[in-house]
Write a structure and sequence with these properties.
Shape: globular
Order of helices and strands: EEEEEEEEEEEHHHH
Number of helices: 4
Strand content: over 45%
Oligomer: single chain
Strand order of the largest sheet: 1-2-3-6-7-8-10
Helix content: 10-25%
Length: about 170
């Protein structure tokens, strides 16, 4: 679907799968679909505040989310209700697919956080990834996931995601 398509929907249902089941789904405004990268915007979809210690996601937060059909990650820019940038939360996922009004993404447990000031870059959930067994059940996907996390960490440490998201 081209970004210039006149029949482009105004929203998509984002469906995040984990271990073959829907972890969460929510409606997001479709900002762009250039045929490879899909960009959507949505309010925080959680029912309650989620405090990770390094960031809090709460009602009023807005996520601009970037998904790729050929990359093993999604990058989510997080802003508070006043529009102040909190940072970027990155999910390591299989490449995204759009079908029947849904943007479908499979979470592979690994995550990365980069604070707005760039001073904090954290690799997250590596223990969950190890426990998932993906290295045994799908070693190619496990390698792609680990490579994606390394690539995102490099970008985060070298100045951020702006070039990736422009």
């Amino acid at each position: 679907m081209s970004a210039n398509s006149t029949d482009r929907p105004s929203s998509l249902e984002v469906v995040l799968l984990k271990y073959g089941r829907t972890k969460i789904s929510y409606t997001a405004e479709l900002l762009e679909d250039d045929g490879n990268r899909v960009t959507v915007r949505a309010p925080w979809a959680g029912d309650a505040v989620r405090d990770f210690g390094f960031v809090r996601f709460e009602q009023g937060d807005v996520f601009t989310e970037y998904y790729w059909r050929d990359r093993w990650y999604a990058v989510k820019e997080v802003r508070d209700a006043e529009g102040v940038l909190k940072g970027w939360y990155c999910d390591i996922t299989r490449p995204a697919a759009v079908s029947g009004g849904e943007l479908i993404v499979e979470d592979l447990d690994l995550d990365l956080w980069r604070s707005a000031d760039g001073k904090t870059v954290l690799r997250l959930d590596e223990d969950e990834f190890a426990a998932s067994g993906l290295t045994t059940t799908d070693p190619e996907a496990a390698t792609a996931a680990e490579n994606a996390l390394t690539e995102l960490e490099r970008l985060a440490l070298e100045g951020g995601f702006e070039a990736l998201l422009d």
